[in-house]
């Protein structure tokens, strides 16, 4: 007798690296090592030494998104064991971090504009054959990581990856970036790499059922921790699919939440920065996996921040995605790892890197990579693109967290590409300071003054208004603010009405309304149809 089952819609997934939630800088080997040693180890040692302080302080609303670990006192020994395991099993990553710091200091001390060839003998052993020394045109020394080769060495710790599965009983998930995840009665940890075939099989079961006995046999063959029964992950009830075919001649846009967009015609479907919610018993206005079509022609990613390059969502969509388009990186600069290499390592085979202004088609949808200024604390990050999507005479601009640092850029782009019908613009105008994201990568301290000056700011009212004006946008929508409560687990933001991001967003929306331009601060789900 057949017993076909589907993956339950309330099953949530956390990709892990050494028990920590996997975000893009934990994929690339060098940045993973720097974050393990300079961030995770420090946080874990702090928790072991000050567990009571962590447990008490983390409950305060003002501590949302902080580095405090959200674990009970009873798990101090678990953290001690993870510290020891990190040292014992991944000691070469600690050596790699020391080598990167040593190389940086050596170049600053000895590279004064003369030939760098004699300095190759002084490259620390862990980096031998993996870097190229170089100057910029002002004789400032640096080095280039041969990043693709790093993925072929022992520094790429595929063995540190695992899959955490649980059932989401509430849309409110705990903040994931500050705390390692341990297997317990409510979760299963599958100790398999994230590109393991079973991962794709499992998530395809949101759409296509499998025999329960076959799935049971596959679970039986895996190394698993945790007491959650695997049968609780599955149901015989088919998913409630909501996606309907698009009528000929029409263009449909769906706001997926946060920075996620989906553009569909009768012939093609493309997405930008998808990050999807899970369905549970809470009836809220959110887009889930059940709301998507069976096939996605292309996913475009704007930049490497985890709320835009969401590994958690992309792995669950792998069986649907035909192509991923990403902006090209600086090819070996530590702070700007290649998204293509990350995604290839995760098992995505058709990943295309694009330059600014590259254009490509998917059936009747034309996509152009547009320059993206700002929001990266003035670090030389090349891997960022806004996306211009054109179909049926309509132009949609997904500008993500772009900031109008140089108004002349948008005038030039408007001269080339014309006005846009729909502008989606992020307004995270009070972003975190330099050390917030890049602190683990720094090999020497920066002053508080420098740290606070260089922030991850997107557009404020003035900047967003001028971008909208430059493109004569016919409608303007503010997104990517982390407003949706079900995304608090990675955004770590809890807004008050007088917070600057909301105040500035309202100013933009009010200005647009005064001009008769449709505008809104987006939250949840939205749907537009153009013909």
From TrEMBL:
Swiss-Prot/TrEMBL keywords: Hydrolase
Listed GO MF terms: hydrolase activity
Gene3D superfamilies named among the record's database cross-references: Ribonuclease Z/Hydroxyacylglutathione hydrolase-like
The keyword Hydrolase belongs to this UniProt entry's keyword annotation: yes
Enzyme Commission numbers on file: 3.-.-.-
A family per Pfam: Lactamase_B_2
UniProt domain Diiron non-heme beta-hydroxylase N-terminal: residue ranges: 6-238
Residue stretches making up the Metallo-beta-lactamase domain: 270-426
Keyword Hydrolase: yes
Protein name (record): MBL fold metallo-hydrolase
Organism field: Pseudoalteromonas obscura
Lineage: Bacteria, Pseudomonadati, Pseudomonadota, Gammaproteobacteria, Alteromonadales
């Amino acid at each position: 007798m057949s017993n076909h089952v589907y993956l339950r819609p309330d099953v949530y997934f956390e990709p892990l690296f050494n028990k920590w939630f996997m975000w893009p800088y934990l994929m690339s080997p060098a940045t993973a090592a720097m974050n393990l040693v300079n961030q995770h180890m420090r946080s874990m040692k702090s928790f072991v030494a000050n567990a009571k302080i962590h447990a008490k302080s983390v409950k305060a609303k003002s501590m949302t998104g902080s580095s405090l670990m959200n674990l009970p006192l009873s798990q101090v020994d678990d953290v001690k064991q993870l510290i020891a395991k990190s040292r014992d099993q991944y000691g070469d990553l600690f050596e790699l971090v020391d080598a990167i710091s040593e190389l940086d200091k050596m170049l600053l001390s000895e590279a004064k504009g003369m030939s760098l060839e004699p300095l190759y003998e002084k490259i620390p052993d862990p980096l031998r054959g993996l870097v190229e020394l170089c100057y910029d045109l002002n004789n400032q020394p640096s080095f280039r990581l041969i990043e693709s080769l790093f993925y072929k060495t022992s520094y790429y710790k595929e063995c540190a990856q695992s899959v955490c599965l649980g059932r989401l009983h509430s849309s409110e998930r705990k903040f994931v970036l500050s705390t390692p995840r341990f297997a317990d009665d409510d979760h299963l940890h599958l100790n398999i790499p994230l590109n393991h075939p079973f991962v794709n099989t499992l998530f395809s079961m949101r759409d296509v059922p499998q025999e329960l006995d076959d799935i049971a046999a596959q679970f039986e063959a895996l190394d698993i921790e945790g007491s959650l029964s695997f049968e609780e992950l599955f149901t015989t009830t088919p998913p409630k699919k909501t996606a309907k075919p698009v009528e000929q001649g029409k263009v449909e846009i769906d706001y997926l939440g946060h920075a996620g967009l989906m553009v569909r015609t009768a012939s093609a479907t493309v997405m930008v920065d998808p990050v999807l919610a899970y369905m549970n018993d809470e009836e809220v206005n959110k887009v889930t996996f059940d709301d998507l079509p069976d096939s996605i022609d292309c996913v475009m990613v704007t930049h490497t921040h985890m709320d835009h390059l969401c590994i958690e969502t992309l792995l669950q969509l792998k069986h649907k995605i035909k192509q991923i388009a990403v902006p090209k990186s600086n090819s070996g600069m530590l702070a700007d790892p290649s998204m293509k290499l990350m995604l290839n390592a995760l098992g995505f085979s058709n990943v295309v890197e694009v330059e600014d202004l590259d254009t490509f088609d998917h059936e009747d949808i034309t996509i152009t990579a547009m320059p993206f200024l700002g929001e990266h604390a003035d670090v030389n990050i090349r891997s960022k693109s806004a996306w211009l999507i054109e179909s049926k005479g309509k132009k949609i601009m997904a500008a993500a967290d772009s900031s109008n640092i140089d108004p002349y850029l948008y005038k030039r782009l408007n001269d080339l590409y014309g006005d846009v019908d729909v502008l989606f613009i992020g307004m995270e105008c009070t972003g975190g300071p330099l050390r917030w994201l890049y602190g683990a990568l720094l090999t020497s301290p920066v002053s508080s003054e420098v740290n606070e000056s260089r922030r991850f700011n997107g557009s404020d009212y003035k900047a967003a208004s001028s971008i909208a004006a430059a493109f004569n946008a016919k409608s303007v929508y503010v997104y990517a603010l982390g407003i949706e409560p079900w995304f608090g687990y990675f955004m770590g933001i809890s807004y008050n009405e007088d917070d600057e991001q909301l105040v500035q967003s309202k100013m933009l929306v009010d200005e647009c309304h005064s001009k008769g331009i449709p505008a809104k601060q987006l939250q949840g789900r939205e749907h537009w149809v153009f013909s």
